[in-house]
């Protein structure tokens, strides 16, 4: 039997939708198409119609119409198979991208980026990772504000109030710029130093990203995870 390519495309798209209950909530985050409690699936329904003799794609419900009728999946939803980034990174959904781009501090971030020559997406990623854009954030170690400045570091950067977003972003970006220059533009090494401190990084003998790859195990687990988080978030900001 010959199958219209448009029908096949629709079936394949449905086959990769996440499992949904009758209220539209995701069930166990598995790649299934069960849409009701009796085991009937959208994919199975369409396939049965096709086998029964539906002649073309107009005879079958579309993905959009099924979404609308079940209120199951937002129109902006991207399936993992259809939205993987280059290099094997985690999929970037529309929802993540929109959240990643939402900040009320763009003016301060762009000012600091231009002043110190730092990519604004990197500044946003550091802020997001450090404080989730919470100006009143205080860590257990006493780091404060958006970019989590320690009191001594803040004073050295000319920051008099770490909870002031403009001062904090300016000071944090100034420090990040210093680290990027110190390590000759090696971003991962600069991020490791931002989290663990340049002194600790220097004591391991790490001076660039190649050294970092060889000696990563010498850094705290928190720092290892921190770099990955920042780089992932930067990828999200670049995507929007």
Automatic annotation (TrEMBL):
Pfam short name (any one): SLT
CDD domains documented for this protein: LT_Slt70-like
PANTHER family reported for this sequence: MEMBRANE-BOUND LYTIC MUREIN TRANSGLYCOSYLASE C (PTHR37423:SF2), SOLUBLE LYTIC MUREIN TRANSGLYCOSYLASE-RELATED (PTHR37423)
Protein name in the entry: Uncharacterized protein
């Amino acid at each position: 039997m010959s199958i219209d390519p448009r029908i096949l495309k629709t079936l394949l798209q449905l086959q990769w939708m996440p499992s949904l209950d009758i209220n539209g909530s995701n069930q166990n985050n598995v790649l299934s198409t069960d849409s009701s409690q009796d085991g009937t699936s959208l994919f199975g329904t369409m396939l049965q119609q096709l086998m029964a003799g539906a002649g073309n794609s107009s005879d079958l419900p579309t993905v959009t119409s099924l979404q609308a009728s079940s209120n199951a999946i937002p129109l902006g939803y991207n399936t993992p198979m259809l939205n993987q980034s280059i290099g094997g990174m985690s999929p970037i959904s529309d929802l993540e991208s929109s959240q990643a781009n939402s900040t009320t501090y763009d003016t301060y971030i762009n000012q600091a980026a231009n002043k110190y020559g730092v990519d604004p997406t990197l500044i946003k990623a550091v802020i997001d990772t450090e404080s989730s854009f919470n100006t009143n954030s205080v860590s257990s170690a006493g780091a404060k504000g958006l970019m989590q400045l320690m009191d001594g570091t803040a004073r050295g950067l000319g920051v008099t109030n770490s909870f002031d977003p403009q001062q904090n972003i300016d000071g944090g970006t100034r420090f990040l710029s210093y680290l990027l220059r110190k390590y000759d533009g090696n971003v991962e090494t600069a991020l490791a130093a931002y989290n663990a401190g340049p002194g600790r990084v220097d004591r391991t003998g790490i001076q660039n990203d190649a050294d970092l790859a060889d000696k990563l195990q010498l850094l705290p687990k928190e720092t290892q995870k921190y770099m990955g988080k920042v780089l992932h978030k930067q990828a999200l900001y670049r995507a929007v």
